[in-house]
Amino acid sequence: MADFDSLPYRPCAGIMLANENGQIFVGRRIDNPGSEAWQMPQGGIDDGETADDAAIRELQEETGIAPALVDVIARTKEEYYYDLPPELIGKLWQGRWRGQRQYWFLMRFRGNDADINIKTRHPEFSAWKWSEPDMVPKLIVPFKRHLYERVIAEFLDLI
User: Fold this and answer.
1) Has residue 103 been placed in a domain?
2) Cβ neighbourhood burial of 64 (10 Å; 0-12, 13-18, 19+)
């Protein structure tokens, strides 16, 4: 059995995208067909890239939303961490990471729904929707739920 505790956390940026009605964008993961695994846009921070730049890049890569259509409202005060469940460690990210460490960004979407296109070059979502903030954690895979609750609590007054 591998010593997963010695693996590092993958640096990541996450985006809580809020519309003018205070609803949050969630996408259904394309890599888990038949499931109802939803999440907010997020992705790895490339070498030499800041978390801020990664957040804008990931938002565009996953939703097709042009950077000019969002305002960055806030960034989490600290990084949030989560561990993968034991059955996924070693299977995701070529086994290099035990989970993720994430800075989260609250962004206000100033476009309209037609500006969202999840059929990107490398799609990550099979569907998307706007959700009330209190419903978002209920849509998320259980191992990320507590992290999502903490991010929502931190940003709730700003949504």
Assistant:
1) yes
2) middle
